[in-house]
């Protein structure tokens, strides 16, 4: 007698992989943990990136992203079928990030504009003087750190909209749904945030243009 | 268009939402305004730097850790339709019980009435009639008559034209009409009265 053949792993996982986010969330609402894992796999990168860019804190972003997904699972029955899953997920992520920013502001454990200016001028001088022997990769890293910290100094209500649009690439209307504000307000917040960011990075931008 | 207006178009230009006319105008403006051109270059460079930030890498096992933590927490209550649905049977049961209770109470009341309970008739105040005072009546007396008197009055023809509705039925008053004189079957304003009219101060309509 032949031993029983184990089910083909691909045949089990194939339906999950082919399901839309909304169908997967429908399964999660019924307690399907495999569907939940698939949703985490699909969105973990974007959620971690959003949280990390908004808070400018890599250490904390994993914990906060985990909390986002925990809330998705705990509140799975509150997901309204038919609504876009990514909007619901990023609404949770934006709210948690907002709470974290406010908590840090209360504790005064936050990055200051002075520190940013110091970092920007350091980066600018390194960019302007490549003969100092700094490696290109290090310069790029420095520049990215300065940009990340410049984003962190933009006020919270502008920052969230800015990151959702210019880093995560969401549409204005979708950001409006996530933040609970009209599309026109989203546009004006993003424009203001871009202007603020440009002003803060101006020393870096001008040095970078120097031959 | 001014420099201020050109800067308002930066966002739409970046999002590629400019009309052909706006784009042509902006390009023409940049050709003649170095300040706006520099501003726009810095602006786009800022956004490019932001977009070029590397994606943050995810620590492995996020799904498992999230699930393990979520399992330790109770699922949040459903805020949406389940609440409504849950109340429907409760409300229906309560309504059914109330209806059944009312029917039982009514049925038992009929039985007890039929067996040994005397039906008490409601106390109705003696009907009274008010007629218009004559000029000699000073102070004007209110003339009230009992039901027997009114019957007598009808008999002698003095108030024969009075309709029953002029009789005050005490507790059963539901509508009070303005003063008017009544003839049998129709009402007329007081100015068109005969010399000895009967004036009703109130009329009672019962159903």
From TrEMBL, chain B:
InterPro entries: Anti_sigma_zinc_sf, Znf_put. This is Putative zinc-finger domain-containing protein. Residues 131-153 have a biased composition (Polar residues). Pfam families: zf-HC2. Residues 125-155 are annotated as: Disordered. It comes from the Bacteria. Residues 3-37 form the Putative zinc-finger domain.
């Amino acid at each position: 007698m032949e031993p029983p053949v184990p089910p083909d792993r691909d045949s089990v996982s194939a339906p999950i992989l082919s399901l839309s986010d909304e169908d997967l969330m429908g399964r999660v609402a019924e307690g399907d943990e495999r569907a939940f894992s698939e949703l985490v796999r699909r969105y973990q990168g974007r959620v971690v990136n959003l949280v990390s860019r908004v808070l400018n804190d890599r250490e904390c972003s994993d914990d906060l992203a985990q909390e986002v997904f925990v809330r998705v699972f705990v509140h799975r029955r509150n997901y309204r079928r038919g609504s876009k899953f990514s909007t619901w997920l990023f609404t949770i992520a934006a709210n948690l990030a907002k709470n974290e920013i406010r908590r840090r502001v209360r504790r005064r454990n936050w990055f200051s504009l002075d520190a940013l200016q110091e970092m920007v001028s350091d980066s600018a001088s390194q960019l302007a003087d490549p003969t100092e022997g700094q490696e290109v990769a290090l310069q790029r890293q420095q520049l990215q750190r300065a940009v990340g910290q410049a984003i962190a100094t933009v006020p919270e209500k502008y920052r969230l909209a800015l990151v959702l649009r210019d880093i995560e690439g969401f549409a204005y209307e979708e950001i409006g749904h996530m933040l609970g504000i009209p599309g026109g307000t989203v546009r004006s917040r993003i424009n203001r945030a871009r202007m603020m960011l440009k002003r803060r990075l101006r020393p870096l931008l001008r040095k970078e243009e120097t031959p | 268009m001014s420099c201020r207006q050109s800067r308002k178009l930066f966002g739409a230009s970046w999002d590629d939402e400019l009309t052909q006319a706006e784009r042509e105008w902006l390009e023409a403006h940049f050709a003649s305004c170095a300040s706006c051109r520099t501003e726009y270059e810095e602006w786009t460079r800022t956004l490019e730097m932001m977009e070029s930030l590397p994606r943050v890498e995810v620590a492995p096992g996020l799904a498992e850790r999230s699930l393990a933590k979520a399992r330790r927490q109770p699922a949040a209550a459903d805020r949406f339709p389940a609440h409504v649905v849950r109340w429907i049977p409760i409300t229906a049961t309560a309504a059914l019980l109330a209806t059944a209770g009312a029917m039982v109470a009514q049925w038992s009341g009929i039985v007890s009435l039929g067996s040994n309970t005397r039906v008490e008739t409601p106390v109705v105040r003696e009907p009274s009639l008010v007629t218009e005072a004559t000029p000699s009546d000073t102070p004007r007396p209110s003339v009230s008559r009992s039901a027997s008197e009114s019957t007598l009055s009808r008999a002698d023809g003095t108030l024969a034209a009075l309709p029953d509705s002029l009789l005050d039925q005490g507790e059963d008053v539901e509508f009070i009409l303005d003063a008017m004189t009544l003839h049998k079957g129709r009402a007329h304003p007081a100015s068109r009265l005969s010399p000895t009219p009967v004036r009703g101060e109130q009329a009672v309509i019962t159903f």
